[in-house]
Amino acid sequence: MFKLSPLNRRRMSNFKRNRRAVWSLWIFAILFGLSLFAEFIANDKPILVSYRGELRMPVMSFYSEQDFGGDFLTEAGYSDPEVKCLIVTGGLVDCFDSPESLIEAVDNDVELQIDGFSAGWILWPIIPYSYNTIVDVAGVAPAPPSATNWLGTDDTKRDVVARVIYGFRLSIIFALIVTTGASVIGIVAGAVQGYFGGWIDLVFQRFIEIWTGMPSLYVIIIVFAIVGRSFWLLVFLTILFGWPSLVGVVRAEFFRARNLEYVRAAKALGVSDSVIMFRHMLPNAMVATVTMLPFLITGAIGGLASLDFLGFGLPSSAPSLGELTLQAKQNLQAPWLGFTAFFTFAIMLSLLVFIFEGVRDAFDPRKTFS
Amino acid sequence: MGAYILRRLLLVIPTLLGIMILNFALTQFVPGGPIEQIIAEMEGGGDVFEGISGGGSEIVAGASDDYIGARGLPADFIAELEKEFGFDKPPLERFLNMMWNYIRFDFGESYFRSISVVDLILEKMPVSITLGLWSTLIAYMISIPLGIKKALRDGSKFDTWTSGAIIVGYAIPGFLFAILLIVLFAGGSFWRVFPLRGLTSDNWAELSMIGKVLDYLWHITLPVLASTISAFATLTLLTKNSFLDEIKKQYVMTAKAKGLTENRVLYGHVFRNAMLIVISGFPALFIGVFFGGSLIIETLFSLDGLGRLGFEAAVARDYPVVFGTLFAFSLMGLVIGIITDLTYVFIDPRIDFERRG
C-alpha cells in the first residue's frame, strides 16, 4: 500500500471536494471500464454456449462449425439459424432442413424424440453485433433506430451502438497513449531547454519552430501512402507532431526555477543535473503541465476524429467515431448518425475536461494552501 | 532592443530554410508526383491519388523516375513534361531555384491551373476573411464582457458553470458542432432554414444590394457559428484572469477610496490595464482573420477557402502551391511571433527579452 505525502493528501481532498470532477470521474470510469469489455457487450459471437452439456466461450476462443456438428472448418456463424439450431439441439442433422422449427421446439421445452438430441443454450451479449458485423435485416442502408438496432445502422448496415462502444474505447486508448507519449517527450525536452538555456535552448527552439511548421496532415498523408496505415503508426505520428505543445510551459517553468535558491543550493551541494531537473524541479513544473493536460487529451481525440473524418485516419475497418461523423455528413437523411456522433463526443470530451479540471485545481498551489 | 529585433529577424532565416528543406526532402520520397497525375489523366486511368486519398494503401510505387503509368505514352513526351515542370534537373538544383524565386516573392504557377499561386491565394481569401472576421468579431463581443463578469463574480455558481460550458465548447471539435447544425438546420430532417453549401446563391448576380447582403449573411450563419464556438474559451479565460489580477492591485483600492463609482473604477482604470494582454494578441489575430483556414469546416459547408486549397494541393501534389503557401505562411507566422513579442514590450515596458545573469 503506497502512502500519500501530506501535500498529495491535500490535493486528493481538494479533488474530492470538486463534486463535478468526482462525478465525472465515476461516470467516465464506469463507461471506460465497460468499454474495455466491449467484446462481452457487443459481439456477434455468444459469450457462453452450452453444446452437448459442454460449456464453450466463443468470445474467447475459436470454434469451427464442425465443432458443433456442422460441415465447415471455418468459424461458426453464430447468427445463422442452422448453427443456432445445431447448438441448441446438440448437433442434429435435421437442422440443415428445418432449423427454425427445431429452435422453436427447443424454445418451447418440447422434448424431441430424436436420436442424439441434447438440449443446449446460447448466451448472447446485450448487443449481438460487433463493430464490423453486417446487420442482416431488410431495409434501406442507414436504418433508423429500432428495437434491434438501438441507434440504427450506418450506411454499410453496421450497428451504430456497437460501433460507438468500440469507437469510444479506441478513441480513449488512442488519446491516453498519445498524451502519455507526448507529455513524456515534451516534459523532457522542455526541462532540458529551460534548465540549460543558452545555445541548447536557442537551437532547440529553432528546431521546434521548424517542427511545428511542418504541415502534419501532409506528412501523415505521405507516410500512409508509403507504408500503409495502422493504429500504431498513427499513434507514432500523432506523438511526433504533438509533443511540442507541452515544451513551452515546461521550459518557462524551468527557466523561472533555475535561478531560485533551492536549485542553487542543490547545485552547490554537487547534485547532478539530471537529479536536480527531475527530482527537485519537475514537481514544481507539474502544475503547469497538468494545466495543459485536458487540452492535450481532448486535442488527441479531436485530432483522431478529424483525421478519420478526412479519410486519413485509422484503417477503414476500424470502429472510428470520426468515420461515423463523416457518414452523418454524407447521409443527411439519417440524422441519428449525426446526433450519435455529436453526443458521443460531447459526453466523452466533457467528462474528460471536467475530470482534468478537477485535477488541475487540485494541483493549483493557490488553492492547495488556502 | 534593436539588437534583439535584429537577432530575432536573423533567426527567421535558418528556421524558414529548415522548414523548406525538411518538406522538400520529404516530397522526394513520395510515390506519385504531378507527372504521374497528368499521365494518369491523359490515359483516362482516372486519378493516381485516388488510392491515397480514397482509403487504400495499394500505391507503393518504386523509384520516382520509373513511372508505372508511363508505359502507354511516348518517352519524349514524358521527357518534355518533366522539362516543363523542371523535374529533369537534380533535386538540389530544383530546391535552390525554388528558394531563389521565393526570396524574391515569386511563387510561380500552379501545375494544374494556369494561375499564379498568389492569385490562387487571393481567390480563396473571401471565404477565409468571412469565417475569420465574423467569428472573431462575435467571439470578442461575447468573450470580453463575459470574462469581466466572470472576474467580478469569481467563484460563484455563474462562474463555474460558464467556465464548464466554455471549456466543453472548446474541447469538442468545431466540426461536430457543424454536423449538428447541419443536421438540425440544413439537413431537411428538422428545420430546413439554412443552405447547405457555398458562400452565395446561384442567382447572386441578379439580387439587389440588400438581397446580396442578406443572401451572404444567410449562407455564412452556420459556418461562422460552428467556427465561433471553440473561440470563446481562451479569450474569455484570458480576460477573466487578467481582470482578476488587476482588481487585486492597490490602485484599484485607491480609486475606490477616492469614491469613484464601481463602473468608473472598472472601465476607467482596470479595463485599460487588464486589456493590455488581450490587445497584444491583435497582430496575430489580424493575420489569422485574413489567412486562417479550417479545412474541415470548409469541406463540410462546401466553401472554397485556404484550408481546402492547402489540402487539395497536398493531395494532388501541386508542389508550387504546397511550397508557396508553406513558405508564405511560415514566414508570416514567424514574423507575427516577433511582432507579438514586440507588442508586449510596447504596451508593457516592464517586459524585456534581454538576457540576464
What does this structure look like?
The complex is a heterodimer of chains A (about 375) and B (about 350). With about 375 residues, chain A is mainly alpha-helical. In chain A, about 65% of the residues lie in helices and about 5% in strands. Chain A is built from 15 helices and 3 strands. Chain A has a 3-stranded antiparallel beta sheet, covered by helices on one side. In chain A, a hairpin with a 2-residue loop joins β1 (about 50) and β2. With about 350 residues, chain B is mainly alpha-helical. In chain B, α6 crosses α14 (about 280-290). At the A-B interface, α7, α8, α12, α13 and α14 of A face α1, α3, α7, α8 and α15 of B.
The neighbouring-strand order within the major sheet of chain A is 2-1-3
Helices and strands of chain A, in order, run as HHHEEHHEHHHHHHHHHH
Based on helices, strands and strand pairing, what is the structural class of chain B? Answer: mainly alpha
Shape of chain A: elongated
Outline the low-pLDDT stretches of chain A. Answer: none
Q: Determine the fraction of residues in helical runs of chain A and give it as a percent range.
A: 55-70%
Output mean pLDDT of chain A: 83
Largest sheet of chain B: none
Q: Termini distance of chain A? A: 29 Å
Rg over CA atoms of chain B: 26 Å
**Rg from alpha-carbon coordinates of chain A:** 27 Å
Distance between the termini of chain B: 17 Å
Q: Could you report the average pLDDT of chain B, rounded to the nearest whole number?
A: 78
The number of distinct helices of chain B, counting runs of at least 4 residues, comes to 17
Strand content of chain B: under 5%
Give structural attributes.
heterodimer, A: 370 residues, mainly alpha, 3-stranded antiparallel β-sheet, 3 strands, B: 357 residues, globular
How do the helices and strands line up, and which of them pair or pack?
The complex is a heterodimer of chains A (370) and B (357).
Chain A: H1 6-17, H2 19-36, H3 38-41, E1 48-51, E2 54-56, H4 81-89, H5 99-107, E3 121-123, H6 160-196, H7 198-213, H8 216-227, H9 231-242, H10 244-257, H11 261-268, H12 273-310, H13 321-330, H14 335-363, H15 365-368
Antiparallel strand pairs in A: 1-2, 1-3
Chain B: H1 2-28, H2 34-42, H3 50-54, H4 75-85, H5 91-103, H6 117-152, H7 157-171, H8 174-186, H9 209-228, H10 232-247, H11 250-257, H12 262-274, H13 276-279, H14 282-291, H15 295-300, H16 306-316, H17 319-347
